[in-house]
Sequence to fold (158 residues):
Amino acid sequence: MIATGVLPKIAGVDSSFVAFRGLFIHLMVSPLIGMSYGLLFRDESSSSGSSVAWGWLFGLIWWYLGPMTLLPLLLTGVCDWSTDAASALLPSLLGHLIYGAVTALIFFLFDRRYTRSLLLDPRTSARELRRLRPVETPARALWLFALSLGVFLPILLG
Fold:
């Protein structure tokens, strides 16, 4: 974000410590967004590969919500979904996809460890086994469609 010059835009331009304030704001908001991944996608992934794919979808959703929608609304009061705005934010898309994939993978590893500890107790093992989603669900087609549409639409229109 520092290399592309996006970080100062997060905090506005009214101080000399714009980059530090933008970094601080980003570091405060990121854990909240990561927690929302856990709330929304906890039971969706059954392997590390599917968790990364769900993370890409999560990163894409936050790319649309964050720099495409909420940040322009907070700074200017106008939401700009034009192709020029989307093409200017394409470097940010890569960062959001990486953030989503890393968040999902780390959450999957922590959740798998926690689930293994719950499976040791026979009282909770049946409930935890019912909670796990089987691999053969149509969810893969959903995230593949949404991810490809979200990534390629700004490129094609821009």
